Amino acid sequence: MKRGAATRGQVAKAMTGAEAIEIKATILDRQVRAALKRFRLTRRNDEERYIYFFDTPDLKLLSAGIITRARRTVGGDHDCTVKFRPVDPKSVGRKWHKFHGFKIEADASEKGLVKSASFSMPVARGLIKRVAAGSKGIAALFTREQEAFLTELAGRTIDFRRLVVLGPIMAQRWRLDDAACPWPITAELWKREDGDHMMEVSIKAPAVQAAAAVGGFMAFLAEVGAERDTEQQAKTRWALDYYAAKLRPKPRPAKARKAAPKPKRKPAGAARARRSTSSPRRG
Questions:
Q1: Mapped to the 3 state alphabet, what secondary structure does the chain carry?
Q2: CB-CB contact of 78 with 127 (8 Å)
Q3: What is the per-residue pLDDT for 9?
Q4: 26-247 has which CATH code?
Q5: Rounded CA separation 54/40 (Å)
Q6: Beta carbons within 10 angstroms of residue 23's beta carbon
Q7: How far is CA 256 from CA 5, 99, 186, 252, 262, in A?
Q8: Domain residue spans in the chain?
Q9: pLDDT value for 280
Q10: What is the C-alpha to C-alpha distance for residues 198 and 105, in angstroms, rounded to an integer?
């Protein structure tokens, strides 16, 4: 790794406007079982969540960098979130900073760093289930403040009636400590209904610790033998692509052209009989 004048302040510059950093890494499928065993992660010590996303069937919001989701925690609090990624912190109004559920954060992975702005609010128990069942509209989940935040950053009004429910994703979440890592580690195992799964580990740190946190966490993963996932993809994209594909109509098989019916052949005897009855009689 290079050091010196050329690298001075690079991370601090990239973090400008962000209050904290979250560093994420995907665990390869073949290493998930070993990771669960190493850290003693089981159904008995997890936090179980069900995550629902809301987008158009062709994922127009995700394509525009907008994520709208709701999380139902079994035995815990429920919430809904509006998130924009990437975002320039300077373009986000200061008025949103007064809300407890608002934050500007840098999301870092082995692919790079991107800043996001999100606004979360609590949701009454039972409401997410009613929305998922279709007895309540999606707009019922989001507050007027969240809708105003969405409109301001998107530059347009989002019609919730055009959105569909995508999910749920069943997620197991753990918080753990390791003596070799100075930051608490979060592990999440997401499962789709088709049985496919994805595991992600992450840490969060204040913005001033960003450089040390990025380098330290990646070094920690290397030390414990976590292989680099060169095909790493975001959990949200992995989930939404699957559920959106289920909504697309399946192409109908092309209809085979019917062959023209062949003319029926008349028996030879019948033809001779007609000729004999039509001949004039001789006297």
A1: CCCCCCCCCHHHHHCCCCCEEEEEEEECHHHHHHHHHHCCCCCCCCEEEEEEEEECCCCHHHHCCEEEEEEEECCCCEEEEEEECCCCHHHCCHHHHHCCCEEEEEEEECCEEEEEEEEEEEECCCHHHHHHHCCCCHHHHCCHHHHHHHHHHHCCCCCHHHCEEEEEEEEEEEEEEECCEEEEEEEEEEECCCCCEEEEEEEEEEHHHHHHHHHHHHHHHHHCCCCCCCCCCCHHHHHHHHHHHHHCCCCCCCCCCCCCCCCCCCCHHHHHHHHHHHCCCCC
A2: yes
A3: 87
A4: 2.40.320.10
A5: 34
A6: 24
A7: 71, 62, 56, 12, 17
A8: 26-247
A9: 47
A10: 23
Q: Are 52 and 73 in contact (CB under 8 A)?
A: no
Q: Phi and psi for 6 in degrees, rounded to 5?
A: -65, -25
Closest by CA to 31, choosing from 169, 226, 274, is: 226
Instruction: Report the predicted TM-score, pTM, of the whole model to 2 decimal places.
Output: 0.85
Within 13 Å and on the Cβ side, how many CA atoms surround 115? 21
Matching residue, tokens 């003319």 = 263
- Assess contact for 50 and 188: CB atoms under 8 A: no
For 7-65, the pLDDT digits (tens) are 788 899 999 999 999 999 999 999 999 999 999 999 999 999 999 999 999 999 999 99
Q: Name beta bridge partners: 163.
A: none
**Looking at residue 130, what is its pLDDT?**
98
Gap between the Cα atoms of 3 and 177, Å rounded: 30
Q: For residue 234, give the amino acid letter.
A: A
pLDDT at 268: 56
**Both structure tokens of 165:** 């429910």
Q: Residue 248's pLDDT is what?
A: 82
Residue positions counted in the chain: 283
- Under-70 pLDDT residues of the chain: 1, 254-283
